[in-house]
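Co-fold these.
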Amino acid sequence: MITLLQIISEAAISEGYDIKTSELHGLSQRGGSVEVHIRFGEKIYSPMVEKGKADLILGLEEQEILNGLYFANPKTKFLVNQFIIPIPLRKPLSGAGIFAQVKKISGDITVIPAEKICQEKLGNSVVSGTYLVSFAASKNLIPLKPASIRDAIKKMIPENYLELNLKAFKLASDSEAMK
Amino acid sequence: MGNEAIVRGALEAGVNFVSTYPGTPASEIGNIFYKIASKAGVYFEFSTNEKVALEASIGASFSNLKTLVAMKNFGLNVALDALFPFVYTGSKGPTVIIIADDPSCHSSAQSEENSRGILLAAHIPVLEPSDPQECKDFVKLGYQISEKFKIPVVIRTTTRVAHQKAPVVLSKILNPGLKSKKAEFVKNKNQFVTLPPRVLEMKKEMLGKIEKIREISEKSNINQIFGGGKSKIGIITSGISYLNVMEALDGFGISLPVLKLGFFNPLPERKIKAFIKPLKKVLMAEELEPFLENEVERLAKETNCKLEIFGKNLIPEVGETKPEYITSAIAKITGKKYNLKSTATNAESIKRLPQLCPGCPYWLVVSAIKKAVDVKDVIFGGEIGCYMLFGNAPVDLQDYLSCMGSSVGIAHGIKKATGQKLITFVGDSSFFHAGIPPLVNAVVNKSNPLIIILNNETTAMTGHQPHPVSDVNSGINLENIVRACGVKYVKTIDQINQAGFISLIKEFLEKDEVSVIIAKHPCKFVLPKSKNAKTK
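Predicted complex below.
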């Protein structure tokens, strides 16, 4: 998640936008939720997204989308990784149930099995986040040029993981959107 | 990131000496210095606790070095005993202290502490940045004030400032190099010795300094008025709330006069009075407790007693001040429409409570305890560290939880009061932080809790910083220290030996004196080569 923030930030800066971000990651390694906010535009004051003011909500996990609903409005786009990390002591919510909740607010939801695609085609699902961001840029879910995302990946990803990430970028850019 | 900008600011100011104890949201400051210190020519240490960290820097400052200390809000509580007299003696080498608060307790237990009140009581100058650029600039300004007035200066951040990322304009690093700077402690009883009756003179001198710094505060452009024209409605704000105010005004497409306070102490009282004098209404866009609001109320009595002051009646005192709270408060005082379209208030939200990591050696402690005792019959004490996650289901082994070091102190009190069976957990880093005095106390005053010291060879919760026994060559032996505190029943065991661990718990729980089990197994993230680079 923090890497995605860096990639999007770097791409936005390279396109001349003002940008501020905020991240909460105190206990992520121990299975807590991670939430980052990214805001870019001509002039940005706050690093925090206001309630109901998100343009894109990107979920790396399906159930987490429910936490994102706080920031959604009828025009908000959703991009979700088809992937569930179970929460201890509770039955995972079904994808359909989650998406029904989302659709009460916004119908613009794209679900991508990024985890599965990256595992099958690249042999490593660790780049599913990169895949999703690249997908978002190539399908205009995020107003940044795919080339800026690619350059940002080159700049931000350590060399031993770079090739894999660039492959994920290419794979996402070439893919068809599924609604 | 705000914390990175703080490090950069200190380097640009030519810092010589840095000490800290890790605590989120301030942890990155120490982590970065830990990495770069030797290359940057800066002395750096992870001290055993925040008080010791502050004392180390006080000593370095007395010896004329430029120093930086960083800690989270609860660390300030620990360091307070050393801080108050330091404001009296003043600094010699310029000193900046970073205090990071965590509104909404994103990475804190124990309380939602607003350090501003404590810092006021200490009389120390406090600057509050809003974004990373200001983090860097205010650290440098802090050093200038400290240098000129020989007084330590606090930079107070919050999670949303410390963990905020934004572009920052860099300046040159002033690299004095520790070696090139001549450090010397020159005896000066008049400054460094806080014995009465001199201490009261010192207080007077210190208050005099604050009044002089107030003049700086009056003129400083970090206390700045933005926009407004002839509007009779104004806003006073600081820190992260300032950014949300500007964003909200932008959203409404209106301009109101906004006084942004970069100084929390001393406040520019004349500037505030001049600002509120022509106003009919003022909104105090202030996070947590209303310290500024109370001050403005006081100043309004002198200068504009008809002023309507809005603050905590519109913005909650609990939890961080979210952007929508400020937008809705501005809407209310200006009569603008603010309809929150959306949002799924009835949607099921999910809570993902943190758990011990898969493969954490503490799981073996949990399983042994559940086999060794009937958990209904035993009280379980806890405090701050990964093991506080024992409090979450399904482990549920935490019957009280407070600050670092407290698990043993409170255990002693419960044992004295009741004699009920009690097992309490202390981390290795917490034991050295504040766990030794209560252990000695329990021995001397004769109670018999079973204390399990969880030695995973690192300060895991805050990001795996080293501590006194994480390096086998440190010369410190945990078991010997426990023994030297007068504990007869002490044993170190690797909890991988479950049978041995279970029988040891059963045996020690029956002792009529303090007993200590040191459960020694490294955190899986400090095992060699277990650190996998993550790209997620």
